[in-house]
Amino acid sequence: MATAIDPNDDADGGDLSVGDPQLGKSRLLSRQCDTCVFAPGNKMRLTPGRLHDLVAEARTRQSFIICHSTLPHYMHPEVKPAICRGFADRYDTQALQLIARLFGFVEVDPPEQGPPDLSTST
Hints:
Layout: E1 2-3, E2 19-20, E3 25-29, H1 50-60, E4 65-66, H2 85-90, H3 94-103, E5 105-108
Parallel strand pairs: 3-5
Antiparallel strand pairs: 1-4, 2-3
C-alpha cells in the first residue's frame, strides 16, 4: 500500500496515477480488497503502528492511500492503481473532496484473487 503523495512520482519510475484518462475520473475500488489493511485480522502483517503511520501521512497531506492490491509491482501488474476503499470509507480528505466535486470517481472491482492470507502460518 502506498500513500498518494504524488501519483506520478514513483521511485521505480512506474505510474501510480489513479486517474482514468479516457473517463476523466479517478479509480476507486468498489469494495475493500480481500486483504484490505482496514479489515480485521491484519492480513497483510503490518508491523504495529504501520497502518496508523500510513493514515497519518495521507491525512496530513490531505491525500489518500492507493490500494496495495492495485500497485503495479504487486500480484496483479495488469490492474491499474485505485484508491483504497477502506481509506475512502473512513476518511474525508481534501484530495477526495476535490476529486468528487471536480471529476468524480469510477468504481472498479478489486483484483479477483487476492494473495494468500498472510495472517495464518502453514
